[in-house]
Amino acid sequence: MPNILLIGNGAREHALAEAITRSPQKPQLFSFMKSNNPGIASLSVKTMPGSYSDLEAITEFTKQNKIELAVIGPEDPLNNGVVDALVKINIPSVGPTKSLAMLETSKSFTRNLVSKYNIPGNPRFKVFTTINGVERFLNELEGIVLKPDGLTGGKGVQVQGDHFETKKDALKLCEQILAGDSSLVIEEKFDGEEFSLQCMCDGKNVVATPLVQDHKRRFDGDKGPNTGGMGSYSLPDHSMPFLKPKDLQDGLEITRQVAAALWKETGSPYKGVMYGGFIATKDGVKLLEYNARFGDPEAMNILPLLKTDFVEVCRHIIAGTLDKIKIEFEHKATVCKYVVPKGYGLPADHPDAASSKARIEVGDVGKARLYYSSVDKKEDGLYLSSSRAIGIVGIADNLTEARKIAEEGVKAVKGPVAYRADIGTDALIQKRIDHMTKIRKN
Ligand code: GLY
């Protein structure tokens, strides 16, 4: 009965907690959370509240509970060096050290790494620390993406056409970003369809999990502001309906080369999840960004399908022996819909913004699975916070059934909440296919 430490408090970590505790080895789960996730708490033998920057509290909790290994869910503790702190007390982790987590925490680090090692997938890009030369580079690009060079909670990237229109607007935004602490990566914008390729990596071996497509926009029809992700789907063949087999191979090959480059560059193997945000374009697969963790919501699509013992997978990641284990996933479709406060993603002065403090009731979600995210369990019930509240996942032999299960489940959550009804619908998926067909023809 191994003792496992889980750090994190979101729906992704609830799915991780479920994958860990499903292990036939009957592990005991110890969870360190910055807020009390009732789903994770119910699966844990002990929980500890605290900040992800309090490395002393985390290592103390670890020592007290004879932990064998740690699984780190979100990027913040990685960025704070939690894995380095655990290494110092001889506790191995599924999750990279602070310098390897730069794969996610520094956009310029990853772009420069990919360029230096001649790995395909980069856009045209330049890194700026002052405004000198910015206007000239903006004028060289057709479409523009601006990325502050640090963690921004998924909300810092600004895309032409979505967040701003003209080059003049872009220049103003660049001035604002550079006036703050951050350096800035300016990139060419790609046209295409995005997909998430979450890989497990032991430093040398890289294993793909089923592909997922997330939906960032707040409202149906891909309208409204960008969010952390409103929901996602995956298919029984583990691919995406708008991709060719070569697209997956190319994304995986880029990830393998990046893992090798990381080892060469830092002298240490990357052990954890390399989640590549890729985009299929008319010129093939391109890299948007890497995350050093599972996606949220994408973890909820793939972890429930994992047939292999996740604790064993974690041990192989740590030992550098992922080539010695067969990692299998069920061939089922999944649809995840996030239930969010009505005001989620909207300006603070919006009339719906107050919804974020309201109480909700959760009834019977039927055949769906429920993963708690940012909810606060008080004595008199469950309260919303300002962020995504509950992930509802339908799993079935085909996408239509999976979507129906998720849709039924979502209706069991009562209160001032919202969700995207179009995720996993035939119409939205056909739109993606048509878009990609048009792009490939041009
Ligand atoms: N699905 C977006 C993210 O996890 O960052």
Write up this protein.
The protein has 442 residues and is α+β, with helices and mostly antiparallel strands. The protein folds into 3 domains: 3-94, Rossmann fold; 124-188, Dna Ligase, domain 1, CATH 3.30.1490.20; 190-442, 2-Layer Sandwich (D-amino Acid Aminotransferase, Chain A, domain 1). It is built from 14 helices and 25 strands. Strands 12, 15, 18, 20, 23 and 25 form a 6-stranded antiparallel sheet that branches. The chain starts with a strand and ends with a helix. The model has no long low-confidence stretch (mean pLDDT 95). The protein binds glycine. Residues 154, 214, 229, 291, 295-296, 298 line the site of glycine (GLY).
Report the principal-axis shape: globular
Specify the helix fraction band.
Answer: 25-40%
CATH superfamily of the largest domain: ATP-grasp fold, B domain
DSSP E strands, number = 25
Strand content: 25-35%
Task: Provide tags for this entry.
single chain; 442 residues; alpha+beta; Rossmann fold; Dna Ligase, domain 1; D-amino Acid Aminotransferase, Chain A, domain 1; five-stranded parallel sheet; 14 helices; 31% helix; 26% strand; binds glycine
